[in-house]
Amino acid sequence: MDITVSARHMDISPALKAAADQKFGRLSRFGEVIQRAEVHFIEEQNPRIAEKEVCEVMLVGGGHVLRCKVAAVDPFTAVDLAVSKLEPQLQKLKTKLALRPQHAARREAAAADGSDDDTAAAAG
Fold first, then answer.
1. Hey, what long-range contacts does 50-57 have (CB within 8 A, 24 or more apart)?
2. Could you list the residue range(s) of the whole structural domain that residue 119 is in?
3. How far apart are CA 46 and CA 80, in angstroms?
4. Closest Cα to residue 36, out of 25, 49, 47, 51?
5. What is the CATH number of the domain that holds 25?
6. Alpha-carbon span 20 to 41, nearest angstrom
7. Is 0.70 topped by the overall pTM?
8. Residues 16, 39: contact at Cβ < 8 Å?
9. Number of domains observed in the structure of the chain
10. 75-98 and 101-113 helices, crossing angle to 10°
């Protein structure tokens, strides 16, 4: 999975980038559902807002897009909240894809041919 981390109105520390890569990299356990993750950190400039650190995440793969936006006191907490928001969405998408008849047929064809899922998906 390709993870892109960017920021607006703030600097990204190496620790924050490593934490985001590690936490969102764990989401790859949901299989081939996602291929790319874009993580954007924004610091709100309004002094009345207590939760200034905003984390926006967009996961793209297989024609599906999952998004979430969370705000927290610090960016590390925002990353944790974003991961906890995205996990149920990914589980729901993976279940929906597994129940499709054409998905099951591709899986069976790939298992019979002994090839990987990418070539079976491209062929079908």
1. 53/77, 53/78, 54/78, 55/79, 55/81, 55/82, 57/24, 57/82, 57/86
2. 2-123
3. 23
4. 25
5. 3.30.160.100
6. 10
7. yes
8. no
9. 1
10. 80
Q: With 0-12 CB in 10 A as exposed, 13-18 as middle and 19+ as buried, what is 89?
A: middle
pLDDT of the residue at 117: 53
Tell me the longest C-alpha to C-alpha distance in the chain: 61
Q: Can you read off the two tokens belonging to residue 90? A: 């990914």
| Tens-place pLDDT, residues 59-87 | 998 889 999 999 999 999 999 999 999 99
Residue 8's beta-bridge partner residues? 42
Q: Write the DSSP string, 30-77.
A: G-TT-SEEEEEEEE---TT-S--EEEEEEEEETTEEEEEEEEESSHHH
Tokens 């149920």 sit on residue: 88
Helices 75-98, 14-25: inter-axial angle, 10-degree rounding: 20
